[in-house]
Amino acid sequence: MIETMTVTKETPVESTPATDPQQTVSLVEGGERQPKPPYGHLSVVCGPMFAGKTTETLKRILWAKNGRGQSIRVYKPAFDQRYARLQIVSHEGLAADAEAVVDWDNRSADMIEDSIDVVFFDEVQFFESPNFRGDILQIVEDLLGAGIDVVCSGLDMDWQGKPFPIIAHMAAKADEVHKLRGVCTVCGRPSTKTYKKTGSGGQIEIGGAELYESRCTIHWAVPDLELTPDLFYGR
Ligand SMILES: [Zn+2]
Fold it and tell me: How does strand 193-196 pair with strand 212-215?
């Protein structure tokens, strides 16, 4: 005799949870892509140099691509005025392919056509003239309006403590802001500023640890100040 499973009236019926219209992922389930949400989710990852912005961005890229099976695009500014295939690489050895762009052309329309889920902009503060010919703020708005999630990462301030307008604008409009802090090279406290060792030059001068340090606000403003316990614990 073949046993059949019977469902009694007492068996609770599982109700389907209501779909959240702000759900930010288009998961691939059973081979079928779910409908895109009406508006994309904007995340901003910001902070000073040496705060782990690249690592955080790469983590999000890997989660989206490998974890959630999402279609993604990654863009970096092109300082050499040419198109190039690049990689974003963290100190831990994580890496992701990225495209360096000068002109945006039809990329937004192509991404909508290709059902891209998430777009990442690395070093987004540099997506402006003369490195980039386009309105990055409008581009991001257009992508969000098409239901594409956007993750922007970059420096929130220059070495003089002036906010970069692009990331300040995006942080204000973002659904989520992840402000990272580094470690002050003088006192070891959490740092939010980028200190330029030469103390001179323009707003943008590409360099690494030979030129910049991450510092707390006190040691950024007064480089050689010796911290007393009062100053240390009072701030
Ligand atoms: Zn310090």
Answer: antiparallel
Nearest to 210 by CA among 222, 221, 224, 195: 195
How many angstroms separate the alpha carbon of residue 10 from the centre of ligand 1? 65
6-53 residue pLDDT tens: 444 444 444 444 444 444 444 445 556 667 778 999 999 999 999 999
Catalytic residue among 29, 32, 99, 123: 123
Would strands 190-191 and 182-183 be described as parallel, antiparallel, or unpaired? antiparallel
Instruction: Determine the distance separating the centroid of ligand 1 and the alpha carbon of 39, expressed in angstroms.
Output: 41
Domains of the chain are 34-181 (3.40.50.300)
Would you call 14 a catalytic residue per the annotation?
no
Question: 51 CA distance to ligand 1 centroid (A)?
Answer: 14
Instruction: List pLDDT tens digits, range 62-114.
Output: 999 999 999 999 999 886 444 445 888 776 778 889 998 999 999 999 999 99
Residue 122 CA to ligand 1 centre (angstroms): 27
Contact between 140 and 152 under an 8 Å Cβ cutoff? The reply is yes
Q: What angle do CA 61, 94, 166 make, to 5 degrees?
A: 50
- pTM of this prediction? 0.79
What is the length of the chain?
Answer: 235
